[in-house]
């Protein structure tokens, strides 16, 4: 699997409800419509390790069969719509978006 991770910073407290509504009703459906997408998982981070605050507010994971499938998806109108929606979120809510991508490597727990 080739995965894209989108890390969103937190909106202002007074904008969180509107951010969540727009993210769930508009952005996630657009992301889910991207061709060649195997799965999409979104997480609202609420906890950090120990007493630390979470570094990001929201994380989205988009999984593709391989890098070629990901690259093909980036040429689609659906990808362009999702990217435009990301820009709208950044402008409207004053948040930042950081993206990282890579090949999944699965390890097995040693405590089983």
Cross-sheet strand order for the largest sheet: 2-3-1-4
CATH topology: Alpha-Beta Plaits
Helical residue percent band: 25-40%
Largest sheet, strands/sense/barrel: 4 strands, antiparallel
Mean pLDDT: 96
CATH class categorisation: Alpha Beta
Principal-axis shape equals flat
Low-confidence region ranges: none
**CATH architecture descriptor:** 2-Layer Sandwich
Structural class, by secondary structure, is alpha+beta
Q: How big is the Rg? A: 15 Å
Beta-strand percent range: 25-35%
Please count the beta strands (DSSP E, at least 2 residues each).
4
State the order of secondary-structure elements, H for helix, E for strand.
Answer: EHEEHHE
Descriptive overview:
By secondary structure, this protein is α+β, with helices and mostly antiparallel strands. The chain has a single domain (10-47, 54-99), classed as Alpha-Beta Plaits, CATH 3.30.70. 37% of the residues lie in helices and 26% in strands. The chain has 3 helices and 4 strands. Strands 2-3-1-4 form a 4-stranded antiparallel β-sheet. Helix 1 (16-32) packs antiparallel against helix 3. The radius of gyration is 15 Å and the shape is flat.
């Amino acid at each position: 699997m080739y995965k894209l991770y989108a890390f969103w910073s937190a909106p202002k407290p007074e904008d969180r409800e509107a951010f969540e509504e727009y993210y769930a009703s508009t952005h996630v459906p657009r992301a889910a419509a991207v061709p060649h997408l195997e799965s999409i998982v979104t997480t609202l981070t609420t906890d950090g390790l120990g007493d630390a605050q979470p570094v990001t507010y929201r994380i989205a994971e988009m999984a593709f069969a391989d890098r070629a499938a990901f690259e093909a998806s980036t040429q689609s109108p659906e990808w362009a719509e999702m990217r435009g929606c990301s820009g709208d979120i950044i402008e409207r809510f004053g948040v930042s978006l950081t993206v990282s991508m890579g090949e999944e490597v699965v390890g097995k727990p040693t405590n089983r």
